[in-house]
Amino acid sequence: MIVTIPILTEHAGDVRALRTFEIRDVCPICGQQRGEPFGTYHFDGSRRLHCDGWTNPCGHIDKYSVVCKEGIPLTICKEGKTIPVFVEPRPIESF
Ligand SMILES: [Zn+2]
After folding, report:
1. How many A from CA of 40 to the centre of ligand 1?
2. Cα-to-centroid distance, 30 and ligand 1 (Å)
């Protein structure tokens, strides 16, 4: 599935902190289906940033910092298609 999430703990609400990733449809811990992504906000302590969130039915919580490492970074081109980009995201240690 494709999700857009912040890659910085302190993003200050800046959309440049967002990256789009293709990630597995299943939970990396137990292999059950992940929940459907929905629009939500990540709060960094001062500012909110609109991004994707999902709730896994299995109860395991996907940390954005872990998903950043798992996912294949994508970029969205003008036609609305997503293509892989080969830049290393800067994952943060914890959210
Ligand atoms: Zn799970």
Report:
1. 21
2. 4
